[in-house]
Amino acid sequence: MWDYVDVQMQHNRTFLHQIPPGFVNQARVLANFHDWNAFSDPKPDGIGNVATRVMLPSIFSALTRIANQTDPLKLAINGISYKPFISLFNLTQAAISNPEIAGIENYNSLATLELRNSSSGGEPTLRLKFKNGTDEHVFRTLKMFGKTDVPLSEFISRLTPVAINSTAEWCTACNQTVLRGCSA
């Protein structure tokens, strides 16, 4: 329902005049509730977090390469839909300190994992920044694991146990035995 309402609001100026007051907000609240519970999971290795779990190996690789000053890689980009946003915010515990992000992000939302030099000269740290669609004009910093800056090694060590590294692991995580190369 929310997807229909959202698209109509973007492309049909008369739509809002045809629905009862409060309907848009109610549809958004219900969609946020549904999608947060469908695309996240209380258990980090739970199926609800699969959208981010499959991306973790490439994220780890890119961040490790960027941190290596002899590697030419300086930027890595992943284009994602709202499901990986939801599970990323859940897995990194960002939604705990920012509960308003627990749901569907707006169109054109952006999240960055910004690799930063440590102010103390130690290992690089990560900072999660988020801009919720075109309504927000600046990125805001979200806490991961209760911190503004997380050492790269901590980020990797916390999330490595739940990363899905192969099709076989995906088949197991999704309890799939037939489709997508999962046949026994």
Detailed description of the structure:
There is one protein chain. With 184 residues, this protein is an alpha+beta fold. It has one domain (2-8, 19-173): Phosphoglycerate mutase-like (Rossmann fold). Helices cover 39% and strands 10% of the residues. Strands 1, 2, 3 and 4 form a four-stranded antiparallel beta sheet that branches. A hairpin with an 8-residue loop joins β1 (110-116) and β2. It starts with a helix and ends in an 11-residue tail after the last helix. 21% of the residues are buried. The model has no long low-confidence stretch (mean pLDDT 93).
Topology:
Blueprint: H1 2-11, H2 23-38, H3 50-53, H4 56-67, H5 82-91, H6 94-97, E1 110-116, E2 125-131, E3 140-142, E4 150-151, H7 152-159, H8 167-173
Antiparallel strand pairs: 1-2, 2-3, 2-4
Helical content, roughly? 25-40%
Question: What is the second-level CATH architecture?
Answer: 3-Layer(aba) Sandwich
What name goes with the CATH superfamily?
Phosphoglycerate mutase-like
Q: In CATH's first tier, which class applies?
A: Alpha Beta
Rounded to the nearest angstrom, the distance between the terminal CA atoms is 38 Å
> Number of helix segments?
8
CATH topology: Rossmann fold
Into how many domains do the coordinates divide? 1
Q: Overall 3D geometry? A: globular
Averaged pLDDT, please? 93
User: What is the N-to-C succession of helices and strands?
Assistant: HHHHHHEEEEHH
User: Main β-sheet: number of strands, strand sense, barrel status?
Assistant: 4 strands, antiparallel
